[in-house]
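Exam revision sheet. Question 4 asks you to relate a sequence to its structure. Input first:
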Amino acid sequence: MAILESRRLVLRNDLAELERLAGWIEGWAQHRVSADVSFAIQLCLEEAVANVIMYGAGSDDRLEIAVELERNGGTLTVRVIDNGRQFDPTLVPSPTPPASLADAPVGNVGIHLMRSFAGSMHYERRDERNRLTLRFREPDAASRQAG
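Answer key, structure tokens:
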């Protein structure tokens, strides 16, 4: 597998960092993947990084988050590796419908969205780091034309 792009970002506990991540993904995705796959990757990465910022660090901690993109044929693998507290999003149960939007558990809904968009989601804790791997399948040209 060839790594198309690998960047290491040091993020503050500040959700404004998601704008920088979104711009990087958008710049990378142009002319490389379909608009649908680009949208899915951007949404999932923003949710994953938001969860790391919200749950992975205390108020004074600085996190180091690595975001890697790999392509092997029509499969895109996205990894988020961070040095925050252990947090396994694959263990979060699917949310039950809230009575109102104000009652919605934002982090859980974000994880449910990642499950919906990614073909697979895998978590492991190794070497004091959280590793979340998401896989996306780029539709082949024939199935894009049929749709």
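Marking note for examiners. The CA atoms of residues 56 and 84 lie 5 Å apart.
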